[in-house]
Amino acid sequence: MLTADPAPTRSPARYLALAGAAAVVLTVVLVGGLDLVRLTGSAHHLRRTISEYALGPYRWVFDTGVVLLVLGSLAILAVLVGRGMTRWHSVGALAFVAWSVGLTLVVIFPKNNWAIGPSVSGSIHRFGSLVAFISLPIAMVLLARPWVRDAVWGAHARWTFRLGVLSALSFSPLLYAILVNAVVGTSWWRVFPLGYVERVLVLTEVVAVLVAGVWAIACSHPARGARPAPDPRPLPGAGTASGIASAPASGTGPASGTAPAPGDVPAPGTAPVPGAQPA
């Protein structure tokens, strides 16, 4: 049986979880805003990858959005660890950290500018993207799996698990494109409109992080801190500080050698205390 653990109304963990979720939402607003600006021209521009924004005048918007996603992800993970949902050395937590590291590489090393040609920065950028895209589904599934059947956190865990699986499915078109490249020789980025596929994948993974953020907010609420309830059965010998039961023994009366109070009349059939004089 679980009961709410009394705690202060204001919890630092709760503020951290709210800040992490807000950072993820701001990422969607910033990067989504860039796509809306492109849509005013032509939807054809969305065939290009999201990271191409880093090659133009809106790089600061793109970089800010990705950095916010990194910080928000780490804040959400810190709350989940702090509230006992997982541990730092668990595979799920490490995969969540790998997601953040991969996104950091995406910001530090811009993609190839094909007007110039391939570069080391572009190769590191591609590696960071793959690390992030692969790590996030693993993190969501492994973080959620131990709690799927939990009475308190089961609903949050199941949603996180589902979004992790959906993220993995969203990545499968890229795996298929790489397989086609290996078998047929067609450039993998030409098998599908890469920009569309990437946007579906990124949106799914960002929503997965946001769902984990909702979980972190819920478990950081002071009233939701669960602990084992105390055993309602009394301990042996409980009752007084000295451990002597406070209930009188059956048939007890005035203590031996003590005269009854004035006006007290012994019960019928009860011998008076020796030496006691009636009032």
UniProtKB/TrEMBL annotation:
Q: Where is the composition biased (Pro residues)?
A: 263-279
In this chain, composition skew of type Low complexity spans: 236-262
Which UniProt keywords are given for this protein, alphabetically ordered?
Answer: Membrane, Transmembrane, Transmembrane helix
At the top level, the lineage of the source is Bacteria
- Membrane-crossing segments per the record: 15-39, 60-82, 88-109, 130-148, 168-188, 200-218
Cited Pfam families:
DUF998
- Annotated region (Disordered) at 223-279
- Entries under InterPro entries matching the protein: DUF998 (IPR009339)
What this protein is called in its record is DUF998 domain-containing protein
Species the sequence originates in: Saccharothrix syringae
Its taxonomic placement starts with:
Bacteria, Bacillati, Actinomycetota, Actinomycetes, Pseudonocardiales
